[in-house]
Amino acid sequence: MSVAQAARSNGEADPAVDFDAVIIGAGVSGLYQLYRLRELGLRVRVFETGSGVGGTWYWNRYPGARFDSESYTYAYSFSQELLDEWNWNERFAGQAETERYLNHVADKFDLRRDIQFNSRVAGARYCEETRSWDVVLEDGRRYGTRFLITAIGVLSAPTMPRIAGVESFRGQSFHTHYWPKEPVSFEGKRVAVIGTGATAVQAITEIAKTVGHLTVFQRTPNWCAPLHNARIGEDEMRRIRASYPEIFARCNESPGCFIHKPDRQSTHEVSPEEREIFWEKLYGEPGFGIWQGNFRDILTDRAANALISEFIARKIRQRVKEPIVAEKLIPKNHGFGTRRVPLESGYYEVYNQPNVKLVDIKTPIERIIPTGIRTSDAEYEFDMIIYATGFDAITGTFDRIDIRGIDGVSLKDKWKDGPQTYLGVLVEDFPNMLMVMGPHAALGNFPRAVEYNVDWVTGLIRHARDRGVTRIEATAAGVAQWTDHVKASAEGLLFNEIDSWMTGVNRNVEGKQTRKIMRYSGGHPVFREHCDAVVADGYRTLALG
Ligand code: NAP
Hints:
Elements: H1 3-9, E1 19-24, H2 28-39, E2 44-47, H3 56-59, H4 71-74, H5 80-85, H6 95-108, E3 115-116, E4 121-127, E5 132-137, E6 142-150, E7 172-175, E8 190-194, H7 198-207, E9 213-217, E10 225-226, H8 234-242, H9 244-253, H10 272-284, H11 289-292, H12 302-319, H13 323-329, E11 343-344, H14 347-350, E12 356-359, E13 365-369, E14 372-375, E15 379-381, E16 384-387, H15 396-399, E17 402-404, H16 411-414, E18 433-435, H17 446-467, E19 472-474, H18 476-489, H19 524-536, E20 542-544
Parallel strand pairs: 1-2, 1-6, 2-3, 4-17, 6-18, 7-16, 8-9, 8-16, 9-12, 10-11
Antiparallel strand pairs: 4-5, 5-6, 13-14, 14-15, 19-20
Helix pairs in contact: 2-17, 17-19
NADP nicotinamide-adenine-dinucleotide phosphate (NAP) binds next to helix 7.
């Protein structure tokens, strides 16, 4: 029985909805949410802006785009058949392989028939009378739905820099997020990259392989560490497949859902020699171990953080031949790991190439001009400008949809001083809106977190369906308690003192200049405990009607 049918059988007014659930987004979250809701027998429609599935992995097809999480930890775990049949080619899969994987999932489970592509949701308004949402697409089409599920990711609203003259440039220009599907050649071209975040670090390294001349405009350097990618052979894939249960269990035990768990020791408990050996080992190993599997206090203790930062700085000095350039690449305003650590495959060596120049904040960009870029001390001519300037993260994608709850209250206004949620899933005054990986949820290795989030949302909808419940809302007390808990969980973490997308700062977006608590920092195991407790308690902390 669908939710709408349940409502009718309870003698309620015909809800007059087209769907039991509308899901916004056909990325990693939306695909799995569709799969689960279909299992409940609901009428579901997914609206997706792109012309294909994959979300992040559909859009970000810039050169060098790939996982920083081990491919086999990133896979969905819900289907044994899927795990049995899919072979990963690389330890850290590139964008093309991941997009292929998500297409395979969509085909295997016949998901496409409920996905409406090229359909951007412009707005959604809650109607108390019908207990449903009126969803409006950019082209004006409207649909009624009982539940509105946002599966819009945390890094889906790209931002261009607020630099005068962007429109005036006469050469080619791209934001990395909107990279074209057709191949782009850099051969013989004078290329500029603006930005040095995780995206830029990957793109710069790849572009430098074929470019005529590359100029990197760096405002803030980031602490990068080696990715150590490699191919996965048949034998290794067999071993991985046999260990999936342990791999997923290990991920679920770690704070970030990564395969890497923090070391139990403090940095100060071991001798400088032992420290050095441990850090050399981590630096030589694949993936986020150096960030997520390091001593337990590197992200909370200033002295510990200074020591690991100095270790990485030494590595940068060893790898970059020109000392002045090396110093420019070493962050001075934040410690290692207090921003998301970009993983790299030869990034620092790029700056040893004679055809690569680093322009840093000492000579900031003043404007984009028709022929290139003007800084405070020079004019540079370019054939191509690449904006690797990041995203209006976490709440940014919500802000770009006109979401209105009870009495037309705007979600953007409600969150202008920072998000307020219950479990990162529900918002007071926005009944029947459920967020998968919303603000205040625990981030990390995305699909691991997504599977839990989707299952939780599905469980709640099942509960509603089975009881003829047609209205689900967070209570004011629940939201206050969770929002306070999220803030408390972030106390003492050094990343809170730093501007980055993780603290909601984006200088290119009005109103996003000050740090806010955007995500849950208590770790996934504790996050799940809280969410499980709500279920065990029969959802009594929610207003169900
Ligand atoms: P980002 O980390 O926010 O980096 C944006 C870059 O653009 C920063 O260096 C920023 O400088 C610079 N920038 C922005 N506006 C500018 C301006 N007006 N003038 C000069 N520079 C400007 O964004 P991102 O690199 O796209 O990465 C975002 C996140 O996506 C990552 O942290 C990661 O979580 C995810 N990601 C994941 C992968 C992966 O899994 N492999 C790959 C790529 C990205 P400031 O630092 O000074 O603001």
